[in-house]
Amino acid sequence: MRALLIVNPNATSTTPAARDLLAHAVSSRVQVRVAHTTHRGHAGELARRAALEGIGLIVVHGGDGTVNEVINGLLGAPRPDSMSEVPIGPIPLIAVVPGGSANVFARSLGISADPVAATNQLIELLALRQNRRIGLAHCDNRWFTFNAGMGLDAQVCEAIDASRGNGHPATPSRYVRSAVRAFFRNRGTEPTLTVQVPGHDPVEGVHYAFVSNSSPWTYLNDRPVRINPETTFSTGLGVFAMRTMSVPKTLKLVRQLLTPGAQPKARNLFRVDDVPTILIHSSTPIALQMDGDYIGMRTEVEFVSVPDAISVVAPSGV
Q1: What is the pLDDT of residue 87?
Q2: Distance between CA atoms of 15 and 22, rounded to whole angstroms?
Q3: Under a CB-based contact definition with an 8 Å cutoff, are residues 130 and 316 in contact?
Q4: 3-state secondary structure of 60
Q5: How distant, in Å, are the alpha carbons of 139, 144, 315 from that of 295?
Q6: Residue 207's closest CA among 238, 246, 181, 177?
Q7: Which of 155, 161, 171, 311 could covalently link to 182 via disulfide, CB atoms 3.0 to 4.6 Å apart?
Q8: What is the reported pLDDT for 313?
């Protein structure tokens, strides 16, 4: 099998030593070529070219943003009006060795957060030829792998993107500080969102909404934050929509999100798992994020689940 190793040298936790180890280890199993990204969107360009060349495996060493670029480069824009939303034709296997700050997608697949341990895990999985199909989702004419959201979390992603642009690394503490600031900045605002899910009445008066394609939604260092615990890469989407900005009620819910095995619930929370589509309308433009990247301001977004979209090198049953 021929493979392409796509490396984002600017990702938070990548190092030259780890990159060299990964390239050497992968070359022991497959014929590998290494490519470093140089600009935004480059990972998608590299992945698309590799697929056209008949490359059978793409290994991504970077963060969630790099993985997202690769997925969108391979699949292209979603085609909801066609018979198949996934392009017809061979799509390379995808493997991920974490190199970013959160690495939610890789860790949700059961891949170690440590790049060296993940490299050893990848070699073992390749030797066993262990891979599986997973579902993806899309909205706003773009694919996402693990989550998207409108409102609060998108504002946090926008702040983190701006912070990165000023040379500050994306750390869990920076995410928490940004989330706290965004929450209190929005406390006095009126809710603008209406959430529509098949089989349910429209939910109005929503302040912010998260959409999940897997669980956990994110990590705080080693601690998973689970907003829709029953949502997996093998199910439909999960939605988590809040109709209050009360501090006591929010703190109570946060405790649930951080408690292992908890099923988050509250009177002002609308939470549903395993749905095929979610339509969210806002009375005024509101921020949208996908896989941790700020996308822009939107007034209406439809989120769509697509089962069995790609094959990934990953442990089974995770």
Answers
A1: 65
A2: 11
A3: yes
A4: strand
A5: 11, 12, 31
A6: 246
A7: 155
A8: 97
How many residues belong to the chain?
318
Distance CA 292, CA 11 (A): 14
pLDDT at 216: 93
Joined tokens for residue 315: 């442990």
- Token pair of 163 as six digits: 């912070």
CA distance 195 to 60: 34
User: CB–CB of 227/148 below 8 Å?
Assistant: no
Give 10-residue mean pLDDT values along the chain (318 residues): 92 82 90 94 96 95 95 90 62 94 92 93 94 96 97 90 74 82 89 97 97 93 91 97 95 92 93 97 97 95 96 86
Phi, psi of 200 (to 5 degrees): -130, 150
Element (H, E) at 164: helix 152-165
d(CA 252, CA 267): 12
Helix axes 16-27 and 115-128, enclosed angle (nearest 10): 10
Say if residues 219 and 257 touch (Cβ distance below 8 Å). no
Nearest CA to 186 among 241, 246, 239?
Answer: 246
Q: Is the dihedral of CA 213, 88, 35, 94 positive or negative?
A: positive
Q: How far is CA 270 from CA 190, 210, 214, 266, 267, in A?
A: 17, 11, 18, 8, 8
* Of 311, 297, 149, the residue nearest 237 (C-alpha): 149
> How many CA atoms does the CB half-sphere of 140 hold within 13 Å?
18
Which DSSP category does 129 fall into? T
